User: What shape does this take?
Amino acid sequence: MIIILPFIPPSLNASYEVHRFGTKASIGKSKAFYDFRDSASWIVQSHRRGECIEGPVAVDVRVRRPRANADLDNYAFKAICDALQKGGALVNDSQVARLVAEWAGPDVNGCVVTVTRYVPE
Assistant: This one.
């Protein structure tokens, strides 16, 4: 299953924020995280054509680099896997047994996510 997203996920730093409750505070997912996950899950639903992969999967992600000094591990993982689950491509994102990410070339405006059944070598 190949899913083409016209936008990149929020960075890890933008994915979490402090929520204050009077004198107490906790860290939780940000609006940017939920906005990405919800928008991406709609696209996942349209790409999966009713298919929901069960069992271990491999996820390969190609992400457009937002700036020259961006860290790849800040962009490629949590929000994308959550969108795959919410969009129904996976039963649970704990199925991800292999995760590979790379910067995409200039032909990609957002990110390309490929999900396949995982077969250990």
